[in-house]
């Protein structure tokens, strides 16, 4: 805490009066006084000079003005003024990342907002999943591929909800008792190059198929015999009334050779019925690998349906927040005001030279909201306001 807090009290001035004089938010002044956090969007040296001017106008002596920015802790009266951050060049501000690392809803924040669990944490059930028109389309496409037939690639940025859709699909199939065998090869150490990790190859996928469809059979040691064994196991399972769906997460790390061979897995048939549906789930690098300009995988590109998970539409951000908060029995208006919703949308939109990039993905929104709720509690704000969002 800065001496500035005591100086204002001695002058009979409130922090809000200083904020109005400076034309900044009360949250910004509170952060400066109590936590020595200078507003990132203002020139700190200029702001300090304006604060000193306010103190002098209200009767502060030279000693009070000169020590206003020193630490107020006992024994620190002669401490040096905290280092003042300089304003970043405009270009650096535009390039600065808008994403926060993982945020945790603090106990005092939960008490202040009367909330007992983090509504933006990992989903606990299918009902916790927000379903926009875009998500509904991709969700249904995945379900149809699993229940009937399909070859899909689902791509999206980190935190867009790809893994949530995979979990939702498996949960939905299990809840319905659907006769669908879900095959998920282990991808913990998967990379597209052997020097970076373990490349997932078709023999590994064949072993995963056998382990799921015919767990009592021991895989043949000869590769050709193993593939025949896998094909026959799929036929036998199909004759028993089962469908089969291969789901590969982190598919952006698949080697191009494996992507190319997926077309051959799709050609496994029993009469006119394809025996294996395939759903690839990965980050946007997967879309690059599946480009129509990539001649090496042209046979796959011509057969696979590509769907990209879009960010939450800014016009639906209040709907998304209301849904998530509602899962924790809180109303939107009890946590964040309408101006703050607009500020959140603006904060998570990056402006480039010729376009804007939205970062309104569920994970980014959740981290920003949790950080804002923690900050609001720390400075005594009853709601998340636009000023609080700007200071996160």
Report how far the terminal alpha carbons are from each other.
Answer: 19 Å
What is the total number of structural domains? 3
The helix-and-strand class reads alpha/beta
The CATH topology assignment of the largest domain is Rossmann fold
- Helix content bin: 40-55%
Q: What is the general shape?
A: elongated
Total number of β-strand segments? 9
Uncertain regions: pLDDT < 50 for 5+ in a row? 75-97
Mean pLDDT: 86
Number of alpha- plus pi-helical segments: 18
Strand order of the largest sheet: 2-3-6-1-7
Which H/E pattern describes the elements? Answer: HHHHHHHHEHEHHEHEEEHHEHHEEHH
Radius of gyration: 28 Å
CATH class of the largest domain: Alpha Beta
Second rung of CATH, namely the architecture of the largest domain? 3-Layer(aba) Sandwich
CATH superfamily membership of the largest domain: P-loop containing nucleotide triphosphate hydrolases
Describe the largest sheet. 5 strands, parallel
| Share in β-strands | 5-15%
